[in-house]
Design a protein that fits this description.
single chain; DUF4371 domain-containing protein; 162 residues; 7 helices; rod-shaped; mainly alpha
Length: 162
């Protein structure tokens, strides 16, 4: 039966060298006391142990890279949910008032772009969510903007059957 050092197997750098308990492990049960003693004092083991404990601490405090990425994903989901809620409300408003949606152009801040886009522009003056969305569209930070005629038609269709 082989014996390995848990933290050295998982947390040592590949080019950090090898010890008897990392690669390939040890089967020398007669001398295991001396092997363990020497291994526990090795620089490789001390660095690996420190990396293991630092990871454990970061996991407990929620300070891992993954948590930061997950937080950013949640923020982006919240943003897009708010944008869609605003757009759905605008579609419902225009539909209830029997108002035309589109004009002759489909570009923000252009003449004759229709009631839907004019409503988006108007809300961007006062609402931080729509203001941020319009800024992203104008600065071409996003190619997905949900302001085109296809999404308008989809939102109308969904609104008719829900």
């Amino acid at each position: 039966m082989w014996i390995f050092c848990f933290c050295c197997r998982l947390f040592s750098k590949r080019d950090g060298g090898a010890t008897a308990l990392k690669d390939p492990g040890s089967k020398d049960w007669k001398n295991i006391g001396a092997i363990l003693s020497a291994h526990e004092r090795s620089t490789l083991h001390l660095y690996s142990y420190q990396a293991w404990k630092e990871l454990e601490l970061r996991l407990q405090k929620g300070k891992t890279i993954d948590n930061i990425n997950q937080q950013k994903i949640r923020e982006e989901e919240k943003y897009w949910r708010q944008v869609l809620e605003h757009l759905i409300a605008m579609v419902r408003f225009l539909g209830m008032q029997n108002m035309a949606f589109r004009g002759t152009t489909e570009k923000l801040y252009s003449e004759n772009n229709g009631n839907f886009l004019k409503l988006v522009e108007f809300l961007a003056l006062f609402d931080p969510v729509m203001s941020e969305h319009v800024r992203r569209v104008k600065d071409e930070e996003t190619m997905v903007h949900y302001l085109g005629k296809e999404i308008q038609n989809e939102l109308i269709y969904v609104g008719l059957y829900t």
